[in-house]
Design goal:
alpha/beta; Rossmann fold; eight-stranded mixed sheet; about 15% strand
Length: about 260
């Protein structure tokens, strides 16, 4: 039997809030898990919404301990109610990370070092849910990642908001992580009844080309309701348009990876 390959490490980031970043992290992870993939989710957002959305109550050890206190990854990782997904939860302690790390010479490579010291071969994917800012937490994720997945809300000025993130990605690529790539851009909160969504899609595809996934995540009340029940949308309503969209996105991402491997 061949040795298990390392996982794909993906930062899910957009410095603009309210674009479906955490929703994408949770539900894409759940859709991949439903395909038999093993997923580790690192919650790097001080709000801890990804942790809440997965029903995590025990947060005695968190991503704060991983980054600030130097805890081992295995010690801060816990199983979730979703078969196939493990999580490193977040707490509000992370909100002080920028200040606490300001004098640390290794402040941008802490997460990468934590990954290097851990055995990640049990996982197919590692997702990092970044805060809605280009803080040290986000930079740590970018330095540790193979690629960045960007949720892009289908609204006016959406593309303009990407410019700073793309600049940060370029700076990280030129410095601490030359292998960093854009995994893809997923259109979120897409409204078929709204001409603006179609205009944003056309603009995104013209500007970003094949980086934009074919799958679009619709506005869907089930996606909004599921976190309040501490569930993924696949568990809450597997037949909803939101659940079906994340299943399609997971299949598209796996197909892209398989195509790259076969070259």
């Amino acid at each position: 039997m061949s040795e298990r390959a390392s996982p794909r490490i993906i930062a899910i980031a957009n410095q603009k809030g309210g674009v479906g970043k955490t929703t994408t992290t949770i539900n894409l992870g759940a859709a991949l898990a439903a395909m038999g993939k093993r997923v580790l989710l690192i919650d790097l957002d001080p709000q801890g919404n990804a942790s809440t959305g997965l029903g995590v109550e025990d947060r005695d050890l968190s991503s704060y301990d991983l980054l600030i206190e130097g805890a081992k990854l295995a010690d801060v990782t816990q199983k979730t109610k979703v078969d196939g997904i493990d999580v490193v939860p977040a707490t509000t302690d992370l909100s002080s990370a920028d200040v606490e790390l300001s004098d640390n010479e290794k402040r941008i490579v802490l997460l990468r070092n934590a990954f290097s010291a851990a055995d990640l071969r049990a996982y197919d994917y590692v997702f990092m849910d970044c805060p809605p800012s280009l803080s040290l937490l986000t930079v740590n994720a970018l330095v540790a990642a193979d690629s960045v997945l960007v949720p892009l809300q289908a609204e006016f000025f959406a593309l303009e908001g990407l410019s700073q993130l793309m600049l940060t990605v370029r700076q990280v690529r030129e410095g601490a992580n030359s292998e960093l790539r854009i995994e893809g851009v997923v259109l979120t909160m897409y409204d078929l009844r709204n001409n603006l969504s179609k205009l944003v899609e056309d603009d995104a595809r013209q500007t970003l080309g094949e980086l934009v996934y074919e799958t679009k995540i619709p506005r869907n009340v089930r996606l909004s309701e599921a976190p309040s029940f501490a569930q993924t949308v696949l568990d809450y309503d597997a037949t909803s348009t939101g659940a079906l969209a994340y299943k399609a996105l997971a299949e598209e991402i796996v197909a892209r990876h398989d195509a790259v491997k076969s070259r």
